[in-house]
Task: structure prediction
Amino acid sequence: MKTIKIITVLFVLALTFSCEDQLNVVPEDNVASNTVFGSLATINGAVVGIYSKNQSGDLNGMAQLTTDFMADDVEFVGSFPSLQEIDQYETLATNASIDNIWLDAYELIGAANNIIVNLPNVNPDEVTGLTEADKTKFIGEAKFLRALANFQLVNLFAQPFQISNGANLGIPLVTKPFEGGDISDFQLERSSVNEVHAAIQLDLLDAIAALPEDNALRANAGAARALMARLHLYRGEWAQAADFANQVITSGQYSLATDYDFFDDNPASSENIFSAINTATDGPQETAGSDEVYVNFYNAAPGGRGDAPFSQDLIDTFAAEAGDRRFSELSIAASDAGGNDTFFTTKYPDVVNNASDGMILRITEMYLIRAEANFQDGTSVGDTPLNDINRLRSRASLADLGSVDLDVILLERRKELCFEGHRRMDLLRNNRNLRPGGGAASAPGADKVIFPIVDDEITNNPNITQNPGNF
Amino acid sequence: MTKKCKWLCVLMCLSLSIGFAQQKTITGTVTDQDNVPLPGVNILVKGTTTGTQSDFDGNYDIQASMGDVLVFSYLGQATAERRITESNTLNVQLQEDAEALEEVIVVGYGNQQEKKIIQNIAVVKEEALENLQVVSADQLLQGQTAGTQIVNASGVLGSAAVIRVRGVNSINSGSQPLIVIDGVPITDTAGNTLNRGGNTGINPLSYVNPNDIASLTVLKDAGATSIYGSRGANGVILITTKRGRKNSKTTLTLDVNTQFSQSTDVPDILTADEFRQFKSEVATIQNGTPTSPEDLNLGAIGSGGTDWLGGVQRTGISQNYNMGIRGGGEKTTFFFGLDYQDTEGFIIGNDQQRAGARINIDTEVNDWLKAGMNLGITNNRLNRVSVENSINAPFTTAFLQSPVVAAFDDEGNFAQSGSFIPNIFARVALNTDELKTFRVIGNAFTEVTPFEGLTWRSEFGTDRLDLEETLRNAEFNTPGGSAQQISVREERWLTNQTLNYTATFNENHNLTVLAGLNYEETLRSRLNVSSTGFLTDDLRNLGSGATPTVLNGDRFPSRLFGLFSRLSYDYKGKYLVEGSIRRDGSSRFGANNRFGYFWSAAAGWVLSEEPFIQDLNFFDYLSIRGSIGTVGNDRLGTFPSLGLFSAGGLGDYNGESGVIPNQPENPDLKWEESKTIDIGLKSSFLNGRVNFNVSYFKKNTTDLLLNQILPPQTGFTSISRNIGEMENAGWEFELSTVNVRTENFTWRTNFNLTTIENQVIQLNEDAATDSEGRRIIDGAIQRAIEGESLNNFFLIRYVGVNPQTGDAEWLDVDGNVTTNPGTGDRVVVGSPLPEFSGGMTNTFKYKSFDLSVLMNYSYGNDIVLDGLRFADGNDAIGGIVNIRRQNLNYWRSPGDNAFLPSPSSSTFNLFNQRSSQQLLDGSYLRLKNVTLGYNLPEQALDRLGNFVSGLRFYATATNLFTIKGDELDGIDPEVTDDIDPLFQGETFFTAPQSQAYSLGIRLTF
Result:
């Protein structure tokens, strides 16, 4: 009997030995949300995180590629039914390629809202090294990136301003971060294109005021002005477009590079205003979704997939005026995914490390905006359209022109900015068909020259309105 | 003091017996119920340690005295006792044990007598496993027991099978059962290796040598699983490895076999010339002008091509060597196992070498202390290949690669394919993808018995996995070359402390009480590095690359602490009740819900112990039982409840570290809980020749953890919440019969059948809704709908090609024919869940020959072969991919019953969009395993001078044939692209299963 007692006592002791404290285990590879605003390093990290999201293959890569497939610069080859749908103006709401553009943009906006809403409440006295100036700059960066994402979305998912003077449906404008709990604040209806544009303008004006002229390779005041110039151009507000473009050109921060080596992983080039910098060591940008879209799709095999070669129309366009360095130096002959001999762009050359940068804003575009806006308005803010166009032509080793018209300006714009995601909006806002000799499906205002609101949004938001068309 | 007395007594008795007993030699023959001599029967003089074994003719001789009792015992036979009389000859006929119901069965944290078990468990015993030749342990379960569904993950070596005990119990958490090897719950993290497309996680059961396994117990109802608390909801599989038997002769078994494997069935695709012809005919019709293959850049008819599909297959030749040594003395028993497998898959580039060793030792230190240790070590080297939707998957790429693309140039070197679909021959030949694993699973225990009836068992166990995956892509395939290395260490240590008390009161009241404690610590750490830019392919290691590209290091700790107890009581073995309770605490759960309680209660009535049943003189055994209880599922990742920001690659930018939100906070998160009701009947009649069991269960899972999809505007895709409810209900039938039993011939049949109905009772309030207002979880192919089964294929209905117009036709949502359907036209078109499934084993014995035939089947389920969107039709991937032969049957003129619409139809390019066209009937009956064996008769062994005590030759064929629908020609019906329940029955292209033939020999010394 004694033995039983001893054993029982031992066992009860074993049971009461508290293993329960051992159950508090903390993550080692993540930061809990309540600690993010605790130090300057983590606050800066939370801003860096927004840039990192902007680097995702869907926001910078897929967004450009899909619009190229809709327009006339690239030929669709390849195996993705979702990309084929886009190419054929049959995009459905369930399309897997556009889904992540929407999701990633709102993830970016959420990360930016976290800074914009919560950082002002952080007392600099309680965080070592944090100053009011830091706070202003961080918030300015977040606003610039939020504006960029909203602009990207409204261009892709809504008809352009020209269709109904901006009264048509744009996108939902989210201004708060989600912190668990109630989701009804995140089931917003779509604001009109004008409202979205106004919000972007507000963010950009704040960013211009808050950001330094030189902010190393992060967003600076010039980037905000440049995006403002593009927004006004897209709205046909010529005077403001020319003015903001001219401000950037005359800021002294940027200048036309003499050759085209700024495409080759050269973010510090004087050409660049703002780019999505990809490096060999930054690893996958996303846990899900597509990564490294530029190098993957725009380059031929091996290395790339060879899904987005030059269209015949673009080859012919370059061939019409021989000697263009933008063709001879920025293209390569190779066979596409279908085995046909064609040409590929070399604007994203690093197929090994996926380290080619996304060209978001560069000074050349400012010259093109100034030229187009001045031409449309009959003004010469900064310089004449002819001089601006000849500047770019001479860099491309083409002879100076004696005069320019809108067609010439748009042609120059096309040859300069092809494969950088501009072409579709340039055609639509000038009321031109997306395809040479294209029919009703590719005409401005057609249902599927824009994307449907993605299925994830439709099924999870009762307040959303789908775009017209059979989705 | 008492102890001393006891020893003195023993000594005195011994000396007395030496002095006075009339020792004599007893001889005799032991036979079975059919008068067949039984070799190897243990014969013991009761109360002594004097013993012997019968020889091959069943003869024995032993020294004993008149009045002694001899005990004859043999596995599967009822033990017999005979008192020695004046005669010196004692022949004994043993009787077959009625279903061996006296046997002791392994259950959670203990053993129970089989006839007293009122938990619902399925046991696969050593006899059933003995002659089954398999590569990994999961195959031992396939088709053997009701309620356990095993879907093999293609014929790719090392891949995890999908194991479901009683269906899918969860939507977003794992649905794989807990696997416990000799008391050690093993880890089975899927993300330890690189994703190679589809379901390519490494099979956790590949770390135990199937030849070392003594028995498998599948715990099914709550009565059996609730003792595993927060981990029991998906069922528990207990694996017990072989141990020695006391006082038995040491035997050595040597098994050597050679296997040849090939693919079961592959789709019929076009040759280069058929492809050229087809493309030129289509282009001619579409362009309105004659278009030759040359015009299409396909080369002239007759200009050659590549048989890609032929080139990725081979006949795999494998060797298996296995040795087992088993024995035991008076105090110590042991099992020692050694195995080596050199397996070559039938897919190029896929092979595996596994070496394993095991040692199990038990010893009785004295009359109150037992100690022992189980230790299994495996070393595995696997050359991996990709599967499913991956351009590096040999089978997928071989289906899709254009047959006109040349694999080699004129000089015989690899040629670039020129498209993103690579030259798969070059990928496999030049790249390296090697996975090396080393795993130790084992425990050491002591058992203290302070007095009869009470045992304190103390176990310390470990499961340690070291894994290293090395990739090296050659210059030809990746310009500049690249290398990657992943190292994972997942280690778990645990302790189980149990007290077990068994007692019988007043002869009729039997009581067993178990109380225990279980603590486990698991740490998974992972290092992932890669680099690019190699001067030459000869520089193999990643340090030689110029640019480091990925650098990740992570650690994931988790801990579990459980207290449990079980109480079993029976009256005369007739009325039985049992109850259990467990309290679990887990570091995985939210601070507000860290601890959970799980319980069960069961009752049984052994009717065959009642006189009114015994009077019927019909049943050998008859019982009914019922149980109710709760269990949990904790498979939800390591920190699902915290609000988190990610760093590393996801947050950094241009060399600066950053963080980005990746998980919203949810402190209320807790485990999923299943409540199960189970009732069953067990019977045995006609002298044990027919055994029939049936059970019904209903399992209601609440607090279902759903990744509730958040509105995208939140910036998060989902949040984990306990919001769902789901129910599985079904019947399980098991019938085993001895159809024929004569002296020379026996035929036994085991048959089992399972039906499971699944219903989603509730999804989250703010879930998306369908047009009828029902809540749904939507996927590209499947949709879970509240009130219906979790898995429904939700697709546009494809009708066929209209023979008059040549247009492909679909049905819109209202059932009207349309030629331009949209996503709004999707409806429920099928289910991946079978109406019933199961298996059947027939074993035949004729003289020295034995034959066992194992079949498994599934009926009423559908599968979706997503890859048919590419392998059918003309335009997928810009028309560059190869297609199945039936596409040659395109519509040419009115009246044609065509597969493909007219090339000039507007539907020609819409044809292969996602629809029920890719939905196929997945019912099948498969001849899984046939083994024919021949045991050399004793006379022959005698003539060999008894050099060996047993010699067996055998031949095994796996997947000999499969009966399935015609539309499944070339397609394997067992598909598992993903172990995620929401993707059940979907595949891109499943690599076929292997059809294997093996020849082997087993020697026993």
